[in-house]
UniProtKB/TrEMBL annotation:
Enzyme Commission number(s): 2.7.9.1
Domain PEP-utilising enzyme mobile: 422-501
Catalytic activity: pyruvate + phosphate + ATP = phosphoenolpyruvate + AMP + diphosphate + H(+)
Domain PEP-utilising enzyme C-terminal: 517-867
Keywords: ATP-binding, Kinase, Magnesium, Metal-binding, Nucleotide-binding, Pyruvate, Transferase
Species of the source: Carnobacterium antarcticum
Protein name: Pyruvate, phosphate dikinase
GO MF annotation: an example: pyruvate, phosphate dikinase activity
Pyruvate phosphate dikinase AMP/ATP-binding domain location: 58-293, 294-347
Similarity section: Belongs to the PEP-utilizing enzyme family.
Cofactor(s) this protein cannot do without: Mg(2+)
Top-rank lineage group of the source organism: Bacteria
PROSITE patterns in UniProt: PEP_ENZYMES_PHOS_SITE
Length: 869
């Protein structure tokens, strides 16, 4: 069996086997771009490594050996050579890019011999010993896990002794001394000499890369992103090129388009006289790529051409790592670049308009969940203009965030547990910080560029981030930040504008986002592609307006009970509930009627002729009762009851298991007058709107919690009688529809019968999940997370529809409903209506529309379009 592939044996389609990095290195080699030679150990070899108790078996070692020989031949260099030694980089690379794994060891192969060879080959002793000391430090850190601080303090000490400030001011002799001390540290910490044999170094490094696949950070990352079905990581072994050979060498990162806003222009950064990781690790703040044009015009032009090539080859924006060695350009990596939602839309739309991808491909390029970023607010311009600016950094990831500052991931997590919003402030971030980054509102780092760890990870998460804010001096030890004019301490509140890079003092008011341009175009394409409609769940005219701004095609659910909580209404409603006689109840209902009618009228105003589904009262009545003593006393007064009498009536409403109790249609059956009042309000408002605006409104009235067709027949007779009364009184009529929710399992099972009485179905997947699993919607959060930890559930069943179980109920009800009425209109109005994975499932079942909260409408629209492709 073959476990090692030369770069010229692979191609980009072999990601699963060679990992993303390996497959792309092979592809770049294939299309004759300047890539240093090397080979890749497959993900299957990582898998076997774990099966074989983490040892490198003889067969693999022999394969590695063969490839090394080949590499020596193709480069004309030799391991341990005292003239022109072969040095290697060793990098991990899974099929998905995955921060948290061991990343890179550079300069592998250096030892007491080859360092002399390197010095000769480059006529630069300083460079050789600097490389050697970097190698010892990196190897010790990532392979042997020796704390960095040992090495850093030796370096600091040397600089102090020489009276210099920068690493690069140390000379060859200083560095020789440092190498000696580093090796002593290694011996002290491991009990062994620093390995001199390159093959031993290589095997140790490979083992460390393999092992890092299962370190806690990598496992956490895979869990967070739901990556479960991968073999392991591949390992890429590649001949070194040097970006730190002097001022005509350098290293950098280039994006073929701007990852922040999508602009079609080479974008990136570089550092002269530096080695690969210096840019990404954010230790020095790099220069803008445009400056390279003046410094090395030929190299810049080559890079531009390579970028163009790669982009047309991959048909997507590329993130390229490059190194310049003595004026010669080498490409070390390419991958589809991470980008903000704004950039994702711009790039997808542009690529289609440039004729590079189809409209469908463009739609599939954008992650629906990522749209969330766009829909979130920015700082209110006026408020921001008046706020105190503390500093400016790099606008690394857009958005707006305010919170208290904390200096460690742990402190952020602790604050989060207490419900405190926080900003993670660090010198620079590393993969250890990811769990804290997730739980912060935003991230601020003093060092690092646009491609530093903090910037890349934050953009992926859609989290606001300012990086390289060098004006701020972060002292993590003392938990303070110094800025021009003052000091901040842990717990102080600041605000970050990730779109401009500005740091403000205190909290700033936020304003709604504006969408336009390419977003509008995207929405047009979505309309041309999707077959399912997307409506919104909205209870107020304001919600309805928001939903329309996000291109909702109607309202799929008005939860009318929410209207009763408005100022001044709740008291009438309570009196209605607590009434003991029909007259008392009628009086209270008469007070409520005009208010409900007005609500509906206003919503019709906003929605025009788009469909609007109004659900009759649903929750158990006890939910509306006052809890505070003061309110109970007031209510007793208005009802001329004693406190005891009122408390007695409230207690009668109490149910042990209210969600399975007296709610939904059951209320309408006991108190038909409530349902009658609601449909009267619905129809009177519609008639008025029709005559005022000459509109063709067709209200959709929806009955909740049906479990038997006879319930529906009963309530339908009641409300149709009331509707006829309204028509006669007003001398006018209009078309309307009466449908039902399917949210009780028994309703799903008897859907063919229920369909006989209904004009439409809408699945209440929240209740259907609650009742299908027997999990309380309100109480199950705690133990469901335990189910996820223990891998009993992959997803929360209230977030993503359980296709295997609850999904069957939906499927069955759709089928049975359509046996009775083949063209039956069927929708979804539970939370699952805004979840992309669920939407894909609903599309397969032939559902006509989904309805979700306004802020999820664009996400659901894109998911619906993708599901239709
Ligand atoms: C549902 O049960 O899915 C539903 C939409 O209704 P509610 O969430 O109001 O119970
Ligand atoms: Mg429900």
């Amino acid at each position: 069996e073959k476990y090692v592939y030369n770069f010229n044996e692979g191609k980009k389609e072999m990601k699963e086997l060679l990992g993303g990095k390996g497959a792309n290195l092979a592809e770049m080699t294939k299309i004759a771009l300047p890539v240093p030679s090397g080979f890749t150990l497959t993900t299957e070899s990582c898998n076997r490594f774990f099966v074989e108790d983490q040892v490198i078996w003889t067969g693999l070692e022999m394969e590695i050996n063969d490839h090394l020989k080949e590499l020596e031949q193709s480069t004309g260099k030799k391991f341990s050579d005292m003239e022109n030694p072969l040095l290697l980089s060793v990098r991990s690379g899974a099929a998905h890019s995955m921060p948290g794994m061991m990343d890179t060891v550079l300069n592998l192969g250096l030892n007491d011999h080859s360092v002399i060879g390197l010095a000769k080959a480059t006529s630069n002793e300083r460079f050789a010993y600097d490389s050697y000391r970097r190698f010892i430090q990196m190897f010790s850190d990532v392979v042997m896990e020796i704390p960095k601080i040992h090495f850093e303090s030796i370096l600091e000490e040397a600089k102090r002794k020489q009276g210099v400030a920068l690493d690069k001011e140390l000379d060859g002799n200083d560095l020789k001394e440092i190498v000696k001390k580093y090796k002593e540290v290694y011996l002290q910490e491991t009990g062994e000499d620093f390995p001199q044999e390159p093959m031993v170094q290589l095997i140790l490094a490979i083992k460390a890369v393999f092992a890092s696949w299962n370190n806690p950070r990598a496992v956490f990352y895979r869990e967070m992103h739901g990556i479960s079905k991968l073999n392991g990581t591949a390992v890429n072994v590649q001949a070194m090129v040097f970006g730190n050979k002097g001022e005509s060498s350098g290293t950098g990162v280039a994006f073929t388009r701007n990852p922040g806003n999508g602009e079609k222009k080479l974008f990136g950064e570089f550092l002269l006289n530096a080695q690969g990781e210096d840019v990404v690790a954010g230790v020095r703040t790099p220069n803008e790529l445009a400056e390279l044009k003046d410094l090395m015009p030929k190299v810049y032009q080559q890079l531009e051409i390579a970028a163009k090539n790669l982009e047309s080859h991959y048909k997507d924006m590329q993130d390229i790592e490059f190194t310049i060695e003595n004026g010669e350009l080498f490409l070390l990596q390419t991958r589809n670049g991470k980008r903000t939602a704004h950039a994702a839309i711009t790039i997808a739309v542009d690529l289609h308009e440039e004729g590079k991808i189809t409209k469908e491909e463009a739609l599939l390029r954008i992650d629906p969940q990522q749209l969330n970023q766009l829909l979130h607010p920015n700082f209110d311009e006026k408020a921001a203009a008046q706020a105190t600016v503390l500093a400016k950094g790099l606008a690394a990831s857009p958005g707006a965030a305010s919170g208290r500052i904390y200096f460690t991931a742990e402190a952020v997590e602790a604050a989060y547990e207490k419900g405190i919003k926080s900003i993670l402030v660090r010198q620079e971030t590393s993969p250890e910080d990811i769990s804290g980054m997730v739980k912060s509102e935003g991230i601020l780092t003093a060092r690092g560029g646009m491609t530093s760890h903090a910037a890349v990870v934050a953009r992926g998460m859609g989290k606001c981030c300012i990086a390289g804010c060098t004006e701020m001096k972060v002292n993590e030890e003392e938990k303070i930040v110094k800025y021009k004019g003052g000091v901040l301490s842990e717990g102080d509140v600041i605000s970050l504008d990730g779109t401009t890079g500005t740091v403000y003092l205190g909290e700033i008011e936020k304003s709604k986002p504006t969408l336009g341009g390419k977003f509008t175009k995207l929405m047009e394409w979505i309309d041309e592609t999707k077959t399912m409609a997307v409506r919104a769940n909205a209870d107020t005219p304001e919600d309805a307006k928001q939903a329309l701004e996000f291109y909702a095609e109607g309202i799929g659910l008005i939860r009318t009970e929410h209207m009763f909580f408005k100022e001044g209404r709740i008291s009438s409603f309570r009196r209605m509930i607590l009434a003991e006689t029909v007259e008392e109840r009628a009086k209270a209902l008469n007070e409520i009627l005009p208010m409900q009618k007005n609500d509906f009228y206003q919503i019709y105003e906003v929605m025009g002729e788009l469909p609007v589904t109004i659900r009759l009262l649903d929750p158990p009545l006890h939910e509306f009762m006052p809890v505070k003593e003061e309110e109970i006393r007031q209510l007793a007064e208005t009802m001329s009851l004693s406190l005891e009498e009122l408390n007695g009536r409230i207690n009668e409403l109490h149910e042990v298991n209210p969600m399975l109790g007296h709610r939904g249609v059951r209320l309408g059956i006991t108190y038909p007058e409530i349902s009658r009042m609601q449909v009267r309000a619905i129809m009177e408002a519609a008639l008025e709107h029709k005559s005022d605006k000459n509109s063709d409104i067709q209200p959709e009235i929806m009955i909740p919690l049906i479990s038997d067709v006879k319930e529906l027949s009963y309530i339908k007779a009641e409300i149709e009688d009331e509707i006829q009364k309204v028509f006669i009184e007003k001398g006018k009529s209009l078309a309307y529809h009466i449908g039902t929710m399917i949210e009780v399992p028994r309703a799903a099972l008897t859907a063919d019968k229920i369909a006989e009485e209904a004009d439409f179905f809408s699945f209440g997947t929240n209740d259907l999940t609650q009742m299908g699993f027997g999990f309380s919607r309100d109480d199950s959060g705690g133990f469901i997370s335990e189910y996820m930890n223990k891998n009993i559930f992959e997803n929360g069943p209230f977030d993503t529809i359980d296709q295997e179980g609850i999904g069957q109920l939906v499927e069955m009800a759709v089928e049975r409903g359509r046996i009775t009425k083949p063209n039956f209109k069927i929708g979804i109005c539970g939370e699952h209506g805004g979840d992309p994975a669920s939407i894909e499932f609903f599309q397969r079942l032939g559902i006509n529309y989904v309805s979700c909260s306004p802020f999820r409408v664009p996400i659901a629209r894109l998911a619906a379009a993708q599901a239709a492709i």
